[in-house]
Amino acid sequence: MFFALIFLLLQNAKAAQSGVAAGVHLCLQTLIPSMLPLLILSAFFQRSALGAAASGMLEAPTRLLLGVSGAGAGVVLFALLGGFPAGASSIRAAVETRSLSRRDGKVLQLLCFCPSAAFTVGAVGAGMLGEIKIGLMLEISVLLPLLLLALPLRFLVPANAVPPGKKRAFLSPAQAFVDAVEEGAKAMLSVCAFVCLFSALPPVLSAFSFPEKLRVWVLALPELTGGIYGAAKSLSLPALASLLSFGGFCAHCQLLPTLQFLHLSYWKFFLFRLLHALLSAAVCFALCRAFPMLRPVFAQSGAALAPFSASSPAVSVCLCSMCALLLLGSSTIKLEKKKKM
């Protein structure tokens, strides 16, 4: 597969270059503004005493719904706000700080894999399909199967043979902020690299003559964020819900380091994504039958992704929170320097 990919890219280098350029534009205009603050905030949340306080308050409902400890509530929150990479980054940080066991991390990595609510409701529903109600229907179709799968999953994933070690001491706000910025920047760089790489595939593959129904999937599955626009205009709503649940191979590759860290096989993860996609299609089909609505062929405005993802209310709150953390961190560092002097 690797050599076949290299051959395809070299065979049509000009198309590959245009795809990479589109990927760079997508990263600069959409992904970095919308995701970097969330990645930093999720890492800070898991490394500071704030995460421990929230975990204690949410222990009971998180254990009831998902079968994991209260630290999983923060993972779910950032997965809903930031999508695929934010959930994985939060899981890894929680397991590294021993707020979550490795077993709970596996359960959450299988469950907390979904596009952000701003992307599904705002970009796809309101921006591409011209109706926010359709976006809400797609969001329910993606999330409801995960809640249904949480009950059997808690029995299928075995408990740890070795109990988790003692929790690490929480860092000071200043040090937690500095570490969170470093981890968020690393995660963001990895995401952008995969997006640019997989964005080169659709222009190269478009030169081949695929059947029309297969062509939509071939162009959307490598990189979901860039390929969803064509899929939204061509696929039915149940098929679109299944595509959003599966996530695309670019998102899968972004999670490979976390899967390896959790000792979770990719093939188990892949089969779980297929099951999630099928259930999402079934739920969306049932919702379409229960609440019929007219779907426009495509949005009148042809809105871009960036306004819906980069300027969402959730991201605005995160940016304000990051500013507050920066001020808190700088003042703490100054106080520590004065004490040493």
* Rg on CA atoms, Å: 21 Å
Average predicted local confidence, pLDDT: 81
Write down the secondary-structure element order.
HHHHHHHHHHHHHHHHHH
Total of domains: 1
Q: Major sheet, described briefly?
A: none
Helical percent range?
over 70%
The quaternary state of the protein chains shown equals single chain
Q: Name the beta content range.
A: under 5%
Give the structural class. mainly alpha
Summed up, the helix count is 18
The outline comes out as globular
Uncertain runs are 296-311, 330-337
DSSP strand count: 0
Instruction: Please give the alpha-carbon distance between the first and last residues.
Output: 60 Å
Fill in the keyword field for this structure:
single chain; 341 residues; mainly alpha; globular
Summarize, please.
This protein is an all-alpha fold. It is 78% helix and 0% strand.
Any overview of this molecule?
This protein is mainly α and 341 residues long. It has one domain (31-157, 167-336). It is 78% helix and 0% strand. The chain has 18 helices and no strands. The chain has helices spanning 2-11, 13-47, 49-57, 59-66, 72-82, 84-96, 102-111, 117-128, 132-156, 173-199, 201-205, 212-220, 224-234, 237-246, 249-262, 266-290, 306-310, 313-340. α2 (13-47) crosses α6, α6 packs parallel to α15 and α14 (237-246) packs antiparallel against α16 (266-290). The radius of gyration is 21 Å and the shape is globular. The N and C termini lie far apart (60 Å). 47% of the residues are buried. The model is unreliable at 296-311 and 330-337 (pLDDT under 50).
